[in-house]
Specification:
Number of domains: 1
Oligomer: single chain
Strand order of the largest sheet: 3-2-1-4-5
Radius of gyration: 15 Å
Shape: globular
CATH architecture: 3-Layer(aba) Sandwich
CATH topology: Rossmann fold
Distance between the termini: 22 Å
Length: 149
């Protein structure tokens, strides 16, 4: 297992996924990619839910810029947590539909394994259900996905 992808947000479940990711990266000597997506948690055109709708996430928008700054700070804190592992730790911020961006990253980058939280910010109203983002990644990923509760 050379590279582990950990999509994160600021939820407790993401923190648990990061902890599990560190344990696995330490055991296997893996590189880690910490990924945050600034954008929409709702259904996306990729899954046929919203036809002909493009993501409206403009990195130049001040609100989006503010979220990106917060994401970068959070990612840096997570990165410091991995400070003592042998592998490299990379942080990435993407824009768009969250599930789409995660799946696209899995499909186009050299990722061996994915670890993510049971649910995050987008599922706060339904804490007993698997989040829509996690569910989509779990069902559409071509790589193994470990979901942390």
């Amino acid at each position: 297992m050379k590279k582990i992808l950990i999509p994160v947000d600021s939820s407790e479940y993401a923190k648990r996924a990061v902890e599990q990711g560190k344990a696995m990266a330490t055991t296997f000597g893996s590189d880690v990619v910490l990924l945050y997506v600034v954008g929409h948690v709702v259904d996306s055109p990729r899954f046929g839910s919203i036809p002909n709708v493009a993501p409206v996430v403009d990195p130049a928008d001040p609100i989006v810029g503010h979220e990106k700054q917060g994401a970068e700070k959070m990612l840096n804190v997570y990165k410091e947590y991995f400070g003592d592992i042998k592998g490299k730790v990379e942080t990435i911020v993407l824009y768009g539909y969250v599930a789409d961006e995660i799946i696209n990253y899995i499909d186009t980058k050299d990722v061996d394994f994915v670890i993510m939280g049971f649910h995050g910010i987008g599922s706060a109203l339904y804490p007993s259900l698997l989040s829509s983002v996690t569910s989509k990644v779990l069902h559409h990923s071509r790589k193994p996905v470990l979901v942390i509760k």
